Amino acid sequence: MRIDKAIGIIGGIFILAGIGSMLFLPGEKKWNKDADIRVGSGADISGVIMEETLQEINEKYKVSTSTESSSFQDCCSNTAQWALNAKEINVGFYCPHIAKHTIENNEDVEIYGPVLMNGETIVYKKDWTDVKNVGITQGRQQEKALAKDAYPQIERFDEITQKGILYAMEDEQVDAAILDITKAAEVSDIPTMPISDNDYISYVLLVDKEFEQTEAFRNFIESYNKAVEKLNDPCYLAKKLKVSKKWVEEKQIKFLPLETKN
Fold first, then answer.
1. pLDDT for 216-234, tens place per residue?
2. 192: helix, coil or strand?
3. DSSP assignment, residue 26?
4. What's the rounded Cα separation, in Å, for the pair 112 and 98?
5. What is the mean pLDDT of residues 208-215?
6. For the ranges 129-143, 189-203, 231-245, which has the lowest average pLDDT?
7. What is the distance, to the nearest Å, from the Cα of residue 243 to the centroid of all Cα atoms in its chain?
8. CB 195, CB 147: distance < 8 Å
9. Dihedral through CA 83, CA 163, CA 44, CA 92, nearest 10?
10. Which key words tag this protein in UniProt (predicted)?
11. Given this chain, do its domains 37-117+200-255 and 120-194 carry the same CATH topology?
């Protein structure tokens, strides 16, 4: 009887421990489909815009409990393209190439407007005249076309994952690399070149048409514009990226305000 009782007590302890772990230990983050605003961005400069926007929303509207955000690493990834189509998010920051592809295949979403200009740069370690092959993040066709047009000396572009592109240059697999401005900031001591002689759009805002009609989206746009005003200050952006003001100004990054259409 004592053995049976001991086994029962031990079993009860394990059950309670299991319940406790489910209740109190952090688990994998899940999507909140009931959230008013579900916004997605890449782990790049678009993510900086998203974070600043959500900070403004939380400060003014106190909706942190009903706001869900997601970083899908890169807007060209399958996860990013799936997120909006599956309505896991209702607004997101995408490069123009993927945005165009998305609206062609999903009539429920539209491009609301451009949000960022000149968000990439070329980093290199060799003498610039020796740069012949350039690493580019997978799927970034616009940047490839711009750089090819601006620099006829480039003979080849190698598509590389976002995580591996900087390593490829360090390991001399490529002569240079086209990097998002946040990634270039991590190696700000390395020389850079603009990828184009002219301004170009790096990111646009995609929005679910139904969500576009809501008060929550109007609040999002108002907060986004406040974030843009802050990020267009070179001193503020330099602090965010942990680089010098001069480095930021040389890149001519432009965050673009958006109008409320309704």
1. 899 899 999 999 999 999 9
2. strand
3. -
4. 14
5. 91
6. 129-143
7. 19
8. yes
9. -10
10. Membrane, Transmembrane, Transmembrane helix
11. yes
| Residue 53: its H or E element | helix 45-61
State the Cα–Cα distance between residues 71 and 125, nearest whole angstrom: 30
Domain segments of the chain as ranges: 37-117+200-255, 120-194
φ and ψ at residue 105, rounded to 5 degrees: -115, 5
Contact 80, 40 (CB under 8 A): yes
User: The domain 120-194 is classified under which CATH number: 3.30.70.330, 3.40.50.300, 3.40.50.880, 3.40.190.10?
Assistant: 3.40.190.10
pLDDT grade, residue 15 (50/70/90)? very low
CA distance 121 to 246: 15
The CA distance from 10 to 233, in Å, is 62
Of 208, 215, 217, nearest in space to 87 by CA: 208
Whole-structure pTM value: 0.79
194: left (phi over 0), alpha (psi -120 to 50) or beta: beta
- pLDDT tens, residue by residue, 19-43: 344 334 433 334 344 567 888 888 8
Grouping H, G, I as helix, E, B as strand and the rest as coil, residue 120 is: strand
pLDDT tens digit string along 126-166?
899 999 999 998 878 889 999 999 999 999 999 888 778 88
Phi and psi, residue 157, nearest 5°: -120, 130
CA torsion 40→43→45→47, rounded to 10°? Answer: 40
